[in-house]
Amino acid sequence: MISKKKTIIYITFFFLMQSALHAQVNNIAPNVIPAVHEWQAGSGSFIINASTAFKFKPSVLTQKTVAIFREDLNALQSTKHAIRVKSDVRKNSIIIKIMPKGQVTQLQKESYNLEIKPEQITIKAMDEAGVFYAIRTLLQLIEQSADKQTIPCYTISDIPAYPFRGFMLDVGRKFFPISQLKEYICRMSWYKMNQLQLHLNDQAFHGEHYAAFRIESKTYPQLTAKDGFYSQQEIKDLIQYAADRGINIIPEIDAPAHAMSILDIAPELKNDDLQDGQLDVLNPKTTYMMEKIYDEFVPLFPSPYFHIGTDEYRFKKASTTEDRKAFAAGFCNYINHFNKYIGGKGKKVMIWSGYNQMIGFTPIDSNIVIDMWLGKDAKEQIKAGHQLVQSTDEWLYVVPGANYYGVDNKFLYEKWAPNDFGPDQQLNTGESNLLGAKLHVWNDLGPMGFTYHETAEEIAIALPVMAEKLWGNKMSPTFDDFIKRTVSLKNIPQVNDTRLLENPKNSDAIVDVFFKKSNLPDAVNKQLIKPLNGYESMHVLALGKHDFVKLNLKADELEQPWTLSFCVKNMDSSDTTTVLFESPYGTIFLNLKDKKSQKTGIGIARTVGYKEYAGDGEDFYCQIFNSSAPANKWTQITLTGGHNSCTLYINGNETDTVEKQFVCPLKTIGSNSGHLSASVLLANLKVFSRILNKEEIRALFLNSAPFFKD
């Protein structure tokens, strides 16, 4: 971090006197996230349109930045403006001037001066990185204009406070396709974040055994995950995509703990004295295999940092002091060995904190960067000469779907500081060895975790909060004021945050089916629709145990908030588990039986890609309600799903609420994955992309009156 005094020194090259920047104290500050450090309002606006021309000295990087600007502007405007590059200066031009000054710091490389006048815009920077960030500021100003082309006049001088402004995504436990990673990169670049850490291997904490290693390995082909991996060419392309947007990708290959995927192909590296998924650091074969793995992947990533994990290395059966000391020494020697081994390949090694909690640990090399998820000894680590990244778990961990951790955005914005690691662990302001901080998404639940959209929603506010605090200028006095600023900047170029099953009116039902053949979505098995005996104008879906109806909607499920309502007549009096609605991420059961307690009832669960519903031996994300649908009798059922909540209504009355977040599964009615479908008559199916209030839910029941005449 740099001090305010140093900040002023660094920006003097922009030829702006600080006193002039504050001459008009009543001006409205530009709404940019993260907030700019210095600004002065001008008169009028610059209009960017098809006649706007760029001028800059020939440079591949600047050409890329301009090309990305055009793509992002087109995304914001939904048009194809032909922004040109010209060699002559004229009105309606954007002039880019890169002014290198010899040896500059990372902070100086990311600084910029932006002068917006009605006839032209001038960008001055010491490095291409500063140009890119100036362009981000321009795009944010454009996004807030009504016509998406008017830029208010300002003079801005800006520089970040911390060189490391990071975000970590756990792709080891849950695979994110390249398209999703690109969207996270675009989110980060929008807010001037610059370090993306990919946690590339791990094992899930809940449910059945699950472990994955996400990069294609040519040295150990059997190590490559079968259910989703990145080819080495895909990684190279992603690295370039990120670099073009000011972001460095930090790879993390976690060992010797969290290494179940490695043990799956090399069980000889296991030691029964250690917890599951941990490599035996006292076995020389462990060192040999990890060297081969790092030999393959260290050269793949141009990042100056390479993260080797090393967190949570723990014992299971070893109980004697001698055993523990031997493993502690072996563990720290492992860290030092790979610091030198990977450092010899030109990298700065990063590890997680907590390595020194063992009895009689051996000191580790002082040039290792400590990723401080446990911050109780931050001052000691600084004293020992380490550089630190603030990653405190209680403040900066998001675990989608779990009831532990979670980011308090209000606390982060109003009270948290990157140099505060907890009680008695506040580092001095401007501590040079504090690189910055990092927000984290851990997918502990594995593949059954949240959908891509749900995960993005979890960090939608935390990411800009972190960006503003790390850039160093907290502009809004309160979190509520900050939220108001984010509203006009939520439309991030190249990022699709729109739910596919969303009604523009956000009030009418997305699905509203009375099961007349002309009223059903493009479903298969329409022959299952039959007239209801005694009611010639009414039709029902007659589902058998091996039947299903594929709905063919725009998406397979609806993320919260949602409401699902239907009338059902249960034709089966047994307590067998049967499926009523299903999708890759969720299942709703007309009857769900717990194998341990033998409890049965209406149920809902997260799903592991159709393989098995969550809860087979693990009830972390499976819910059996204290209600059931009686046999041979019509029942009106409504379920609502909100943020960390799910509520069941029977015949218009609330019966159960749980603090768990589920999706509304809509790929099939009945099961198409090998489970038994519910044997039912189904009618009046309605789905809403909001949570209906109790009066509306009661009305749904009352409107189903014809089914309850019997």
What does it look like?
The protein is an alpha/beta fold and 710 residues long. It is 24% helix and 26% strand. The chain is built from 17 helices and 34 strands. It has an eight-stranded parallel β-barrel with strand order 8-9-12-13-14-15-16-18. Strands 19, 20, 21, 24, 29, 30, 31 and 34 form an eight-stranded antiparallel beta sheet that branches. Strand 13 (305-309), helix 10 (321-343) and strand 14 (348-352) form a beta-alpha-beta unit. Helix 6 runs parallel beside helix 7 and helix 9 (284-297) runs parallel beside helix 10 (321-343). The protein is globular, with a radius of gyration of 29 Å. Residues 1-26 and 609-619 have low confidence and may be disordered.
Overall, the morphology is globular
Class per helix and strand makeup = alpha/beta
Q: Which bin fits the share of residues in helices?
A: 10-25%
Biggest sheet layout: 8 strands, parallel, barrel
Distance between the termini: 74 Å
The averaged pLDDT comes out at: 89
Beta-strand level of the residues, as a percent range? 25-35%
Oligomer: single chain
| Low-pLDDT segments | 1-26, 609-619
| DSSP summary: helix tally | 17
Strand order in space, largest sheet: 8-9-12-13-14-15-16-18
Radius of gyration: 29 Å
| Total beta-strand segments | 34
Short synopsis of the structure:
InterPro entries: Beta_hexosaminidase_sua/sub, ConA-like_dom_sf, GH, GH20_Enzymes, Glyco_hydro_20_cat, Hex-like_dom2, HEX_bac_N. The chain has 710 residues and is α/β, with parallel strands linked by helices. Helices cover 24% and strands 26% of the residues.
